[in-house]
Design brief:
alpha+beta, Beta-Lactamase, Alpha-Beta Plaits, 8-stranded mixed barrel, PAS-assoc_C, membrane, transmembrane, EAL domain-containing protein
Length: 870
Amino acid sequence: MQQISFTGRFLKLTLIGYMFSIMSVAAAIWFASAPALHQMQQDAKRAHLETKASVIASILDNLLNDGEFIARSTEIISYLKGSDSRPGQAQSALLRLPDATNVRLIDTSGQVILAARQDGSSSPFLPVEALEGMAAMLEGRAPAAPRISYRPTGNTYEAQFLITIPILSHGLVEGLLAFERRLDLTHVLRAGADAPQTIIATTFQNSFWEEWHGGAGPSVSTPMPGADFHLIVDTDAQEIQTVGRTLVLTGIGVALLALILPFSLMAASGMRAIVRPHQELERSRRVLAIQQDELAELAQIAELARESISVTDSSERIQWVNQAFTKLTGYSQEEAVGKTPKELLHGPNTDPQTRQVIRRALEAGRPVQAEILNYRKDGTTYWISLGISPLDTSKKSGRRFAAIATDITSAKEAQAKLAEAKAATERQSLQDALTGLPNRRFLDDILETEVTNADPPRTLIRIDLDHFKNVNDTLGHSAGDYVLQQVGTILRMGIRPGDVAVRVGGDEFVILLARGSASSDATQLSERLLARIREEMNFEGKICRVGASFGVASAIGGLIENSDLLKSADSALYTAKELGRNTTTVYTPQLHSIVNEKRLLSAEIEIGLKGREFQPFFQPQFDARTEELVGIEALARWHHPTRGLLVPSQFLRVANQLRLTPEIDRQIFRSGLEAVRKLNAEDLFIPKIAFNMDVHQIANTRIEDIAEAYDIGDTRIAVEVLESVLVEEQDGNFVDRIDSLRRQGFQIEVDDFGSGHASVIGLKHLHPHVMKLDRMLVQPVDTDPTARALVRNMIEMGKALGISVTAEGVETAEHAAIMADLGCDTLQGFYFARPMDFEELRTFAQAACGMRSGQVASFTAHREKRRETR
């Protein structure tokens, strides 16, 4: 019984040991292979994800290029700066953005001043998101760079992007171009039949992705450079478990076959010699250990992997490779074993530095990850992502290493193509497409990187073509393009080695002279170029003639710094235009003094606006027959604290450059209405008050809302616009605005009529209440019969159109009599009264309103007396 009991215990222990051995083999296989499989899966998905990220980055680069091209256009910059008040061309520029929605032009105050393709109902972005980063860019705390924001849509593979691009002028942020674009990325995110599904997620979603999707296993993500979103792909944990389960079952089957014979022999021996159970048990354990070591080293599970796997010894000689290795390299296992990767796979273009990094890691016994170029047996090249890790082993042969390689040749080729395309796009972005010259962006780059920061003193020429608009208007834009191309060729052929000619936009060019060139060199070059530009150009049998004005600025001599070259050359060019065009002006100390004076005046104008130093002066207007007061015109004057009373000719040009004229006009408008209100309250009735306003002021200021704040009774308000509105092309919005003011009781008057080229058609189109004859037409009527005949025809034309006529510049009694005889309705000029401040106007109005019928002579005498006192 004792023997049977001992035999039963022995058999039971043998069976337990048998089962434990099988489970040990299964566990060893699982723990040895699962991390490697997981790592291989992660590496493959990461490489796949980075490839998709590169494709999406290329798509976004194209969107940025389109947006930056529009943001640099002269139509957008001119409209944003207010130098071109017509929104039509800027609107057309915005509409050139392909497939964009909610396109907006935003000024530095954050206001949307122009919009196109609005689709606000379906936009996932808040309006304020387009303004993010503007304050930091304006204050210089952040670079003026584009921003890309992402929002998901209802479709898994569609994405909505918001692109904001800073609009720069002379290096300053003038505003933002913001637009949205919906992209269908199905062909990218679902590329490949066996590829895992890729998800686009915001930065916030990415940070909580694994927490929100914990049941799906860990994820792999990569950020998009320059944008606020990530690409994510989930690791399929179930896939790893399925493969692992198959491996374990295979291992158990092998273990069952491998261990059944030793355990059977051990059991049989024990049964035969029960006295030697412990010896048989030790022998069985040794056999089991040998079998387990052989299974771990063979790593048969690696044959199922798609990645190339090889095992090397401490001397880097290959001991074992899988089938994926032979398929990738073309070498059989027999050809590979005993060779080193350097002997077998490396060639002349394999990077030696990468090879050195791998060698150092192996010598240190640490893992290493690298990308390296290898050669197949047939000599063709391929790229791999290589991961090498040391294997723990107790063998006396020393440390061994497992190398897992993934073929990334396609990804590398795609990256190379994208890099080449990006480089080509970058080259194109620095070149003017029409002339082939470098463009404004190239000039900004070279001024910033070379000239401004580190270069010795340089010399620069600004060029602006004269009469170019006439070519466009008379011969068409094709002729204009031809002229620009010819000028580009003249500049390219005329400059010297080291000089750089640039087209900065429109008909404007810049030449940055080579180092060491002075103003005299620039002047000589300008004269040669001017002679060539003024030569006739034949376009399709039509003669094109243009000229050019040149502005030269040089930092040699210390008058200015390199950073001031562009704006100083602008000042010189502006002076050349004033001197009659087709000439060259150098930025001299005298011009520098004038520029500084203008800068001082600019600061004083802003201070004067804050201190309400701009006030109206009033010039009365009289009935041509009765000489009764019929209205006043409000004229801008500046009560300068040190220079005294200034007229518009002394400050208006600088105010226009600063775009402060509308604010000055608004102050004059308010003060003029307040003056009328006070006079009417004192029973000094003013029949009409007229204000000068430009097109931009009329179109963008709600003057009717301002007027409602002042109770001026029955006094009519007249809006005077320059004659130029009759010859310049005005859009429908301006005409509608004029009609709206007319319906609200405002009178429309055309000022300085006859000073330009106004047509009868333009006069009929605007249909003003009054046209005011320019003083240059009125003054010679007392001595020149031709002038009288011309004025008579203009008055008769006005009468025929139902337009009242006012004559300006009436300085003598003879002027007044002649203009009245010619049929003029209203007279204005020094003969009756000079412009006067409010107190003088009150005294004048008291005298005018005190007249009754038959007192015209006494009023005239009063007027003469006032003139003598002046």
